[in-house]
Amino acid sequence: MRRSSLMLGTLIGVLLVTAGCTSTVTGLATPAMSNPASAYVDPLAPLPTPPTPNITWDDCTNLIKPQLSGQPNSDRDITYGCGRLDVPVDYAHPDAKTLSLFLVKAHLAGQSNRIGSLVVNPGGPGGSGADLAIGLSLSLPMGILQRFDVVGFDPRGVGNSAPLVCLDRAQKDAEAASPPRPNTPAEITNFTNHAHQFASDCLSKYPNLEHLNTVETARDLDLIRNALGDDKLSYLGYSYGTELGAVYATLFPNRVRAFVLDGAVDPTLNDVESDHQQAGGFENAYNRFLQHCIAQGSACPLDSDPAAEVTALLQQTAAAPIASPDPKETRKATDGIVTTAIISAMYDETSWDELSKAIASAKAGDPTGVFTLADSYNGRYTDSSGTVHFSNLLDANAAIDCNDSTQVVSLDQVESYSNAWAEQYPMFGGSFAWSLYTCTPWPTRRHPLPTITAPTAAPSLVIGTTNDPATPYAGAINLTKALGTARLLTWDGDGHTAYPKTSCVSNAVDDYLISLSLPPNGLVCPA
User: Fold this and answer.
1) Of the candidates 69, 154, 78, which has an alpha carbon nearest to the alpha carbon of residue 109?
2) Alpha-carbon distance 524 to 465, whole Å?
3) How far apart are CA 178 and CA 362, in angstroms?
4) For the chain, how big is the Rg over CA atoms in Å?
């Protein structure tokens, strides 16, 4: 997944369990296809004009504010609105079935010289933009909040916007615990059977499955802009959110005011190339984590050879998963859980010390720390009553990625890639290749992305982090070139995404969003 590391994890699911917030839709059935890759929808085909939308807003400050207690900047004088916007299920038939998008608006008291709304997307795909808007209301510079309302939306199929839920809690726990890289015939059979069952279950539970795609979400974004009353869109997209923003700029170049695209997805790569690039990005981040641990000396709990400690834990948990000393925790930590914990920590370099402690504790018999990191990545959380839930992040992520894809990778190809990539990237290469099989049995017509180009759009600001694991730096260079009028801002740092982590990046982004003044060409912000 490619998603922002800025979401407030404590807010995941808060809005989901609020009475009246969920949304469902019944619409046009999509038949299963024997060869879905043979049928594509032209992303640039002319379409009928959808009806003019309206957002119904309710004040939900009293719902959200208590959830922020204790968070930094939670004393900011901000009110929150929760809203609904009906959009077409199928933009080819805008007068037919609709689905209801869920939005959150954060408004700072005493705004002056208001510019409009800053619409935000956290990535994934599958991340909750509503949660992101709440988180950013506490972390964005005050200068931005004084000029913009921050508006986040749960994209179609995500969070509170007709959420796609294909797997139940037990199935997701089983999937999380499975080997990161299937090797034996039984493991391979289990993996492929799961992929086919997942595709079948998604289609049976969501007849509009093919319409969970980036192109139609970009069209939703334009309806949101219209409903907010902005002639042109100001947008902040992280990770996959950069892909969504780039698609919007390609479809609606004359409606771009200011686009900040942080943690850029590379528009020049196909699925195989993208996964291979991402495996390298995470491998690089993992090696930097090991170097960080070594540099700490005795302060790092993984002794003098942290790589050997991690390898030993992976071998241990593959052979004999570790039970938790907490009687309420019935799961055991497998090598799949440990690998996910490592991936989770790579998104934010401030989590590296947490990871080293979690690994050391797990080796000593307490896997609580690795469960915490893995659960954060998987969207698994426990509510105030002690009930375990999952967000639908993983379901939506797979569906959107597959609906956007035009590649069908065979099992033989996956095994070949896995073997080759494992040689190149020993920690992540073998397992990342297996993710390619998820879309092989996918049963819908595909909605591929358009070729990204927006030479007539207002200039965008693309941000690339030199050691970004999820969206390696080359993607920022290529997205800047593809858009045609964009400017590249580089942060020489670690972790996934950059704004508003440092003053150098923040000052450049703030000036651009407010005054449309781009930073100097070639600006590199230090770590």
Assistant:
1) 78
2) 10
3) 18
4) 22
pLDDT band of 304, cuts 50, 70, 90: confident
Which is nearest to 397 in space by CA: 155, 224, 235, 192?
Answer: 155
- What interhelical angle do 169-177 and 335-346 show, nearest 10? 90
Looking up residue 254, the CATH number of its domain turns out to be 3.40.50.1820
* All residues at 6 or more sequence positions from 255 whose CB lies less than 8 Å from its CB, including other chains: 222, 225, 231, 232, 233, 248
Q: How far apart are CA 465 and CA 430, in angstroms?
A: 25
Determine phi and psi for 374, rounding to 5 degrees.
Answer: -65, -40
pTM: 0.93
User: Where a domain ends, among 341, 361, 385?
Assistant: 385
d(C-alpha 172, C-alpha 380), whole Å:
9
In this structure, which amino acid lies at residue 1? M
Q: Give the active site residues.
A: 239, 468, 496
- Would you place residue 3 in the very low, low, confident or very high pLDDT band (cuts 50, 70, 90)? low
Report the Cα 155 to chain-centroid distance in Å. Answer: 11
Q: Give the ranges where 206-239 is alpha helix by DSSP (H).
A: 214-228
Flag whether 80 is in a domain. Answer: yes
**Cα(102)–Cα(198) distance, rounded to whole angstroms?**
26
Provide the mean pLDDT of the chain: 92
Owning domain of residue 480: 9-164+208-270+448-525
DSSP states of 251-279 as a string? H-GGGEEEEEEESPPPTT--HHHHHHHHH
Closest CA to 80 of 10, 17, 149: 149
In a domain, 197, yes or no: no
Number of domains in the chain: 2
Let me know how long the chain is: 527
